[in-house]
Amino acid sequence: MWLALVPLFIASLAVTMVAAWILRVPIMTFSVGLGPPVWRTTIRGVALQFSLVPLGGYLQHPGEHGLWEVPPIRRAMLLLSGPVVLVLIGAAMHPIQFDLAVVTIVLGLINLMPVASLSGGQSLLAMVEVFFGREIAEQIQIPFAILSLPILYGVVIYVLVVLIF
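RE: above sequence
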């Protein structure tokens, strides 16, 4: 099952890389999966890697604060590009492979949730910055991160229960 998802993550991250190029956001690492890399190469200064845990993926940005150094509207657009593409790919796959299409759409939608560690939560923080015209204080970011974790855990438990039963 996980092997079948790798092309979807690659497609999603590739579109995110294109979005980063269009939005002029520098990238250091493009990773399919999380954890230590099991395969890695460098192309045009960007490290491309497959990591040990085939769950999600990420882009690593240069600088002391990485993506937080990017203006918030561009940051939000970049963060939303990956999950939106996952949903679109899943919708396009629907007639071909229903089960994989559903999993892909669900992964994209979960990543859009307003949870601090997911793209939806990070883009929400970026849009709040745009609305108020200033950075969000750590006194707000930290409680948001802590309070949003139970939402993520609840969804993961719910999905596991639904898949098992």
